[in-house]
Amino acid sequence: MRYAWLWVSAAWVCGVSPALAQQPAETKGDEIIVTGEKTARTLQETNTSVSVTTGVRIEQENIQTLEDVFQRTANVSATYGASGFSIRGIDQRGVSGGGNGATATVFVDGAPVPQELLSNGPTDVWDVTQVEVFRGPQSTIQGLNALAGAIHIRTQDPTFDWQLKGRAILSSFDTRQFAVAGGGPIVPGELAFRVSAEKRDSDGYVYNPTRQKHANPLDSISARAKLLWTPSFLPDFEARLNYHHFEGKTGYIYPYIDLSVDDYYDHRLNFSNYPSDTDNDADQATLDLRYQLGGGFSLNALSTYTNTSYIRHYDGDFTAENRAFSDIKGGDETYTQELRLNYEGDRLSGLVGLFYYHRDTERKSHQVTLIETPGATIERLLADSLGQDLAAQLAAAYTAELPSFPVDYTADFPTRTQTMAIFADGRYRLTDRFSLIGGFRYDRERNTNGGFALATLAGTLPDPASYGQLAPAVTGINAAILGLVDDASGGAAPGTRTFNAFLPKAGVEMAWTPDLSTAFVVQRGYRSGGSSFNTARSLLFAYDPEYTWNYEFSVRSAWLDGTLTANANVFYIDWSDQQVNANFGNGTYDSHTVNAGKSHLYGFELELAHKLSRTFDWYASAGYTRTKFDTFNTDIALGGLADGSDTGTITDLSGLQFPYAPRWSLSGGANLRLGHGFNANVNANYRSAVFGSVLKPQEDSRVKARTLVNARIGYDAGPWSVSVFANNLFKEKYLQYISPYTTNRLPPQGIVGAPRRIGVVLEAHL
């Protein structure tokens, strides 16, 4: 492990813990309050594995984006650069590429953020009061798209005290960030407002010599307005209205570089001639109504609306040649409505609720795609008529002349999802120490999927006449290639499927002392089924839901008069009917989602936090996960260019590990508050090696372990403060992803981690 000296000499100041003993925006005494499970509990009262990054810690560590939170959280890992994340080794897109729904969702003030916006959308943490990362299934509380977990971002609410703050950041790669936030009363005691805005610009750290431009620039603006209404004529009622607008112009979601360049860590180059960029636009509104009914009862109604759109351009051959490109236009319109009744009594506490979800998704694309010529299939199919040696020679000659062929491809894949659910969650104290935990969700989902595609050959095929007496065989090969392209054209009428799922939860909790408790909980996780469009066959193919059973043991403890907390969760997950995207032998486009897998995973999270004094505190965490596909295979036709009469197994992931499932994730840090306003923070995080895909051989997609060290030192003069920071202080060189889709005919591509970034932060507040 690189920088082992750091972990040996400063292990007690390394790690990221949600239990940082600081004063967050919402506390009970000195304890952090967790709200993502739709009730307010202290961190020590929450047996679910949750990492909480408070607003205080965001400032201390100069955390600017959600990716920074991922890096500092045990058993959470960024995927494909910063375009997504995995929780406990489960990629939020699905571990093997199949299925339409996510396995984990990011919520901002209760509104779900569509997957397409996570890489460069509204997930900055300016004016954010808390980020809660729930590890493990949230299917009972959150419902759909929460099989692996959920992330809740809570922004600062209005107050009846006037506030104003601003921030300016200048850092490496010509990065400039300017932000402002503030508000106060409109009607004292009844109506208050808060507004915030942030402008970010950066050249990025990848350069394109072909276009003579930076390849992953950033130009974004985020603006939010919130209202708080507490009417005097209804003293137990609160209403919060929130509107957020985001615009962003960035590089493509995957900032690829050419790995054939010498010393590519220091020469991060992309040679694409076609633009590789993204233009995002998002609007989000939430209305949160809360009413204290008395007698321990409260009523909550949460309405959310999200409208997003994006346009992406992408160079498909990674070179200065005009060979392949992609233009994609899409968006989501999502509406949710939740009505919930909470109860807090001496022995019984819990909630019941109703939920409705509606989402329309649009995705239209036009691209010229390079399809690798299937030399092995050609050789196999010609062997009977030409003999093995001559068939091998012809296949080699043909693929040498035509290593790949371009296909002009236009597609439209609209989807619609509607979900209704009833759910409940609660605890009952049988004694002062022993409690029962239980809950359920009954979920009914109706989804509609359709598809249309038009494909034409965009290049020329080899001339049979140049092959002499083998001309008839080459004519047949050309006809088969054209047949593959023709097969990629077609459409299917929208197909609608309905799924019902019952998701129970049960457990026990024992409070051994006021400072030590344990719990054991069993619950069922779920991701719905649907219909997948097979382009080559112009058909929709149905696939079923996938389920997990999750067994989790937790420990919550406080020591040394509450100044030290030590919390742990140990889990085992059994996963059945996993959804996988499988190819069925008739060319690249002959693919759709099937239920083909069974797997398991297990591990733990351990988190420590210790406030030694008013001047010093430290925190540390460790996560461990083991994943394995137990049985994961699909029987498919092997005929390829012929009649497909023979069958076999091509998709077989049995024995492989999940992609982006690091075995170890360690993190930690320490805060030092010196006299006269000086303060400092150092933090580090380690992630062990991961595989970037489930393609065989999996070792080809392995990226090595990395350790990142960050530091900040500042001076706080009261109304203003200044600090300097360094991220990736020791200039760690590491890959985040190696593309498995490039061949020896195209340059190898990958995503490298961010280099060292140094900057200065100036803040002021009233």
Automatic annotation (TrEMBL):
This is TonB-dependent receptor. It comes from Novosphingobium beihaiensis. Residues 1-21 form the signal peptide. InterPro entries: Beta-barrel_TonB (IPR000531), Beta-barrel_TonB_sf (IPR036942), Plug_dom (IPR012910), TonB-dep_rcpt-like (IPR039426). Keywords: Cell outer membrane, Ion transport, Iron, Iron transport, Membrane, Receptor, Signal, TonB box, Transmembrane, Transmembrane beta strand, Transport. Residues 43-150 form the TonB-dependent receptor plug domain. It is a multi-pass membrane protein. It holds the Pfam family Plug. It comes from the Bacteria. Residues 252-729 form the TonB-dependent receptor-like beta-barrel domain. Belongs to the TonB-dependent receptor family. It is found in: Cell outer membrane.
